Every structure is written in C-alpha cells, then in structure tokens.
Amino acid sequence: MSSVLKVDDSQFEAEVIKHDGLAVVDFGAEWCGPCKKLHPIMAELADEMPDQVKIVEVDVGVSPEIAQKYAVVSVPQILFFKNGEMEERVVGVLPKVKIIAKIETLK
C-alpha cells in the first residue's frame, strides 16, 4: 500500500503549506498518460522515504484552484515545498534517481 497522500483544494494548506519539512507534490490528472508513469515512482518514494519527505498527489481535474494558484498548466508537474514555501518545480516525468537527488539537496 502506498503512503502517497491524495489531497484536494480544501486540504492543501493543512497538508502541504503547514507541513514542517519537505513535501513533494505530484500534480497530475486521470487522463494523463505520462502521469501514470510518474505515480508508481512517487509511491515508491513515499514508501522508501517516509521520515524524510511527505509525498502528496493532487489531481488537477478535481482540484483546479490549487493548480491555478501555483500556475500548473501542464501535467505531470512536481512542486517541492520546504516548510510551506515552494522551492522548486519540475515539469514532466523525472527518473526516480533525479527526484531523490532533488529531495536530498532540499532537505
């Protein structure tokens, strides 16, 4: 079972902005083919690094407000938040090792 936390517009602030530490947010959509390649990678990271990072998934079709707030116009897109502040943005599917490298530099 994956420990990826699925959040919507109403939960985003409590789960990401008010989170102490690193939160990695995977913005995707049900209809997005590349997103389906990224989701298993994010699930692995959530299971392998639970003490280092909080992995969050946002479906832009369900939560358009938060996607608009952070200018997510294409998916998949990963936003890295540290102590509630957005630190970095990556568009597209990244290999697992590159996501881990970004996590390591931000934590």
Please give the structural blueprint.
Elements: E1 5-6, H1 9-17, E2 22-28, H2 33-48, E3 54-59, H3 64-69, E4 77-82, E5 85-91, H4 96-106
Parallel strand pairs: 1-3, 2-3
Antiparallel strand pairs: 2-4, 4-5
Summary, kept brief:
With 107 residues, the chain is α/β, with parallel strands linked by helices. The protein has helices spanning 9-17, 33-48, 64-69, 96-106, and strands at 5-6, 22-28, 54-59, 77-82, 85-91. The model has no long low-confidence stretch (mean pLDDT 94).
* Topology pattern, helix = H, strand = E: EHEHEHEEH
| Uncertain residue ranges | none
> Gap between N and C termini, in Å?
25 Å
What is the overall shape?
globular
Q: Report the biggest beta sheet as strand number plus sense, adding barrel if it closes.
A: 5 strands, mixed
Summed over residues and divided by their number, the pLDDT gives a mean of 94
Task: Give the % helix.
Answer: 25-40%
Report the structural category: alpha/beta
For the secondary structure, the number of strands is 5
Q: Tell me the β content.
A: 25-35%
* Radius of gyration, CA atoms, in whole angstroms: 12 Å
The CATH fourth-level homologous superfamily: Glutaredoxin
Structure, explained:
The chain has 107 residues and is α/β, with parallel strands linked by helices. The chain has a single domain (5-106), classed as Glutaredoxin (3-Layer(aba) Sandwich), CATH 3.40.30. It has four helices and five strands; from the N terminus they run βαβαβαββα. The chain has helices spanning 9-17, 33-48, 64-69, 96-106, and strands at residues 5-6, 22-28, 54-59, 77-82, 85-91. The protein has a five-stranded mixed beta sheet with strand order 1-3-2-4-5, with helices on both faces. A hairpin with a 2-residue loop joins strand 4 (77-82) and strand 5 (85-91). The chain starts with a strand and ends with a helix. 34% of the residues are buried.
